[in-house]
Amino acid sequence: MTHQTIEQVLKNYPSASRDALIPILQDVQEAEGFLSREAVIRIGQHLKLPTSKIYGVATFYNQFKLTRPGKIQIQVCRGTACHVKGSLNLLDSLQLMLGVGPGETTRDGLFTLDTVACVGGCSIAPVITANGRFFGRLDKKRLEELVEKFRAAGEVVE
Ligand code: FES
């Protein structure tokens, strides 16, 4: 999080109105990918709100992330069509391979694992997305190959 980015966002919300809290959090997260401690403190100063209040709001809404996301964000679709085609097994495999659970990031900062509701690719279920790219008709073996490819390349590759 750069100091400059926070200040740029806050410039758009000149009055210290509590109503601005959620839009500010959304804007900062959009710019930086997460809400750093530095950002939360600065937003608190701007809105004259205690940091604990801001953390309270940020943790209440699960759209907000308080830790830096991994370079590769993998989401396992847990919608009905993917569930029927075994998405829970894919999630289990990923948890074992990466050593993290949903909402967590690997220590090396490479992967963040998450689950998501239907992503609109039911015809190719089960689906995962990696940095927004769809990978469908996965089984455990293909999933392992994919993750190894991503790990080796340090990014999402086909
Ligand atoms: S349920 Fe997974 S893409 Fe629709």
* Mean residue pLDDT: 94
Question: What is the structural class?
Answer: alpha+beta
SSE series = HHHHEHHEEEEH
User: Ligands bound here?
Assistant: FE2/S2 (inorganic) cluster
Radius of gyration: 18 Å
Question: What is the rounded distance between the termini?
Answer: 30 Å
**Helix tally?**
7
- Level of helix content? 40-55%
Outline: elongated
Number of E-state strands: 5
What does this structure look like?
By secondary structure, the protein is an alpha+beta fold. It has 7 helices and 5 strands; from the N terminus they run ααααβααββββα. The protein has helices at residues 3-11, 21-32, 37-47, 51-60, 80-84, 87-98, 140-153, and strands spanning 72-77, 104-105, 111-116, 128-130, 133-135. The protein has a 5-stranded mixed sheet, covered by helices on one side. A hairpin with a 5-residue loop joins β2 and β3 (111-116). α3 (37-47) crosses α4. The protein is elongated, with a radius of gyration of 18 Å.
Q: What's the topology here?
A:
Blueprint: H1 3-11, H2 21-32, H3 37-47, H4 51-60, E1 72-77, H5 80-84, H6 87-98, E2 104-105, E3 111-116, E4 128-130, E5 133-135, H7 140-153
Short account of what is shown:
The protein is α+β, with helices and mostly antiparallel strands and 158 residues long. It has helices at 3-11, 21-32, 37-47, 51-60, 80-84, 87-98, 140-153, and strands spanning 72-77, 104-105, 111-116, 128-130, 133-135.
